[in-house]
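Q: What residues go here?
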């Protein structure tokens, strides 16, 4: 018998890579997607798995649709990856973020509790939980200090997952994942924003990139490595929470330097700093200690930072070159508005 998995947010970066990973393991894969006027299936098509997964419309704020998704798929495992996942947007839409990245987790757990408490549940928790505190590398014991509506919502989800585990004995576990990136990363996020801009500047489609706080530091890993850890977490004998990280921290300036050097350019000649990309509250440093995951799961990251940047820059160049030659393929960048067109979102308290 094939195991069955339901992935909420299958159209996102992690959802599509996890679907591919589980298909390769022989799972029957169901995924929820949002009913939009123009559906967003480009990543599933890019990975050539669109026809291999079962798609169910569901909206995180709508319990009835979540109930239907779980009833129809009758899964062994649920991976709750859907969320309003962009920290910046959580300052623009705090109420919606609280609902879909926070409260919705209880909606799903409650359905599991009521209809089949044997379903294993993975919650996409995040290093943003650590937020304002950086004394040393962050592990499962370090206290949380959220610094955005997104992080506060995810803190709620983290705790509701633990509460349903302790109160009702559900197999419910948190993966506290540090930033992970790939050529399938959304263009709002700083890594892909940079690699896409490098490709465009290199090929003469644009001259500059506009950014916010380039001093921030992150622990960036490769998304394909990270989705494997999600599956590993649900294969344990008992549910536990794990930090997943590379343990290496780099600034956005370092990222810019590496990415632009790959095309023999000096990033300093191509960046514009604009206050509209600064957040009202910043998370300055994140760096994880995933020794527990190494010891218990046997998980270690395979792709290092420099290699990750190279993979992303090369793929973005390949796409723009293909487009130039008239090739047409599922892809996000061609329809993405130039960031100068979007109006200011919020003003930093430092202004
Ligand atoms: P992503 O690319 O933004 O994907 C988010 C998914 O959620 C998309 O499929 C999106 O659908 C869906 N979604 C958003 N709002 C929804 C709603 N109201 N109802 C139903 N579906 C909704 O994010 P990701 O990078 O793959 O991350 C996956 C999860 O891990 C997220 O929960 C994120 O917060 C968390 N996380 C990510 C990282 C990271 O570095 N990537 C690190 C730690 C934790 P559309 O395609 O229609 O927008
Ligand atoms: O790429 P980012 O938007 O990612 P952020 O805020 O770290 O969040 C991502 O990782 C979290 C895990 O730690 C996930 F939970 C979350 O869902 C998401 O996947 O921003 C990274 C840093 C920030 O400090 C931001 O202020 O880059 C800085 N930055 C500077 N200029 C910018 C820009 N970020 C974006 N998105 N765009 C800019 O122009």
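A:
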């Amino acid at each position: 018998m094939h195991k069955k998995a339901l992935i909420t947010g299958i159209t996102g970066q992690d959802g599509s890579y996890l679907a591919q990973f589980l298909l390769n393991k022989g799972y029957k894969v169901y995924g929820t997607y949002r009913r939009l006027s123009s559906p967003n299936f480009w990543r599933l098509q890019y990975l050539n798995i669109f026809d291999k997964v079962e798609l169910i419309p569901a909206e995180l704020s709508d319990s009835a649709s979540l109930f239907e998704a779980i009833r129809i798929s009758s899964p062994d495992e649920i991976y709750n990856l859907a969320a309003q996942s962009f920290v910046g947007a959580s300052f623009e839409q705090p109420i919606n973020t609280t609902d879909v990245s926070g409260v919705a987790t209880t909606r799903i757990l409650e359905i599991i509790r009521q209809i089949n408490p044997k379903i294993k549940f993975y919650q996409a928790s995040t290093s943003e939980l650590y937020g304002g505190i950086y004394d040393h590398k962050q592990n499962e014991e370090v206290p949380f200090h959220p610094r955005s509506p997104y992080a506060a919502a995810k803190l709620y989800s983290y705790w509701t997952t633990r509460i349903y585990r302790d109160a009702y004995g559900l197999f419910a576990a948190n993966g506290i994942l540090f930033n992970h990136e790939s050529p399938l990363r959304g263009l709002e996020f700083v890594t892909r924003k940079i690699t896409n801009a490098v490709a465009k500047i290199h090929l003469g489609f644009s001259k500059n990139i506009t950014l916010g706080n380039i001093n921030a530091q992150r622990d960036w890993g490769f998304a394909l490595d990270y989705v494997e850890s999600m599956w590993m977490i649900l294969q344990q004998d008992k549910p536990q929470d794990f930090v997943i990280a590379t343990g290496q921290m780099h600034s956005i300036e370092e990222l810019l330097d590496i990415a632009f050097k790959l095309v023999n350019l000096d990033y300093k000649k191509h960046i514009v700093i604009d206050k509209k990309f600064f957040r009202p509250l910043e998370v300055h440093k994140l760096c994880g200690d995933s020794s527990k995951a190494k010891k218990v799961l046997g998980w270690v990251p395979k792709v290092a930072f420099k290699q990750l940047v190279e993979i992303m820059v090369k793929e973005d160049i390949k796409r723009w070159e293909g487009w130039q030659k008239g090739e047409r393929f599922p892809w996000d960048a061609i329809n993405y508005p130039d960031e100068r067109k979007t109006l200011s979102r919020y003003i930093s308290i430092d202004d």
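A: Context that may help when evaluating the design: Residues 85, 87-88, 126-128, 178-179, 188-190, 193, 211-214, 216, 218, 252, 277, 279, 282-283, 286 surround G4F (ligand 2) (CB under 6 Å). The CA atoms of residues 130 and 144 lie 4 Å apart.
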